[in-house]
Amino acid sequence: MIYRTHVLVCMGTACVASGAPKVMNAFEEEIKKKGLDAEVLILKRGCGGTCDLGPVVVIYPDMILYERVQLEDVPEIVEEHLLKGRPVQRLMLKEVTGQIVRSMMEYSFFAKQHKIALENAGKIDPENIDEYIAEEGYEALARVLTQMTPEEVIEEMKKSGLRGRGGAGFPTGLKWEFTRKAPGTEKYVVCNADEGDPGAFMDRSIMEGDPHRVLEGMAIAAYAIGNVKKGYIYIRAEYPIAIERLEIAMEQAREYGLLGEDILGSGFDFDVEIRIGAGAFVCGEETALLKSVEGGRGEPRPKPPFPAQKGVWGKPTNINNVETYACVAPIIRRGADWFASIGTE
Q: How far is CA 100 from the centre of its chain?
């Protein structure tokens, strides 16, 4: 069914804490009351980056962002904007000068952003795999499974210049190559989603807003490294929304044949399991994290051996953080040269 208007309600952690679920319910009730349910679709979205302005509601295709929407504001938005076509100016996004922003893409905070890892967050429903697929989701995985050898995938990563986004900045392609060359017939990939720094929420925003992007990146890494049938996402218990959306995404991916056995009929088997940590800061360190994945106390150990040689369960293990995996699919789709051209020398 085609709708003339979409109402996108942010369901990131900050907006949820501000009352977004109640606001979404109020929109559903008000739109039904006005007989607009055949014309207006209510959707949840991930974090768009304006966490201090929640609950945030975006009206599409007008691209009007309403900030700090309360329950009592909903009838006015439905009556004035959705019925009469007159945006409610007092609730519209504003610059620091107080100037009303007519389109959210003109907002100075958004205007010069070049999103890659977060390009779908705030744009799609994170609990709907079809919306991810509509944004070229899993296209990169299909490409590597049907058109590229593992060695070619690794070379593409090395050529792109992608480095670990968790802070260390180690070249991702090189790390994958080390793990691929490590002897062993059983290997693992791990996603470090243990974001321990106070106020850090980059990884959480990706997982809450675009969980399939992380799964796709992990699957591509598993294919490139070889002998990998299992991956782990290590995430702290303080991220319940991210955990829930990852679990939903994993189940949907299995239903679509994008996780599990014989992915896309290629003979490639790979699945992912979530391991929930208790929030110990030290578990952000990779060897402590791997120990915690195994069910032990999260204590760092000396290196070498590095995880690429001896990681989880004593097997060669590749570990990258959430943002690193989120950059993998765009690199495969658009090419290493595209990614390498971004930024300065």
A: 30
**Residue 201 half-sphere exposure, CB side, CA atoms within 13 Å?**
17
- Single-letter amino acid code for the residue at 184: G
pLDDT of the residue at 283:
81
CA-closest candidate to residue 29, choices 68, 64, 74, 61: 74
Which run of H or E residues covers position 108?
Answer: helix 108-111
Find the angle CA(218)-CA(221)-CA(227) to the nearest 5 degrees: 110
Quote the CA–CA distance of 30 and 36 in Å, as a whole number. 9
What topology is assigned to 5-111 in CATH? Glutaredoxin (3.40.30)
> For the chain, which residues make up each domain, given as ranges?
5-111, 137-340
- The CATH class of 137-340 is alpha beta
Could you tell me the pTM of the whole model?
Answer: 0.94
Could you count the other beta carbons within 10 Å of the beta carbon of residue 92?
Answer: 17
Select from 176, 108, 181 the least CA-distant residue to 324. Answer: 176
Task: Decide whether 5-111 matches 137-340 in CATH topology.
Answer: no
- The pLDDT tens digits for 279-302 are 787 888 889 999 999 988 888 888
Identity of residue 32: K
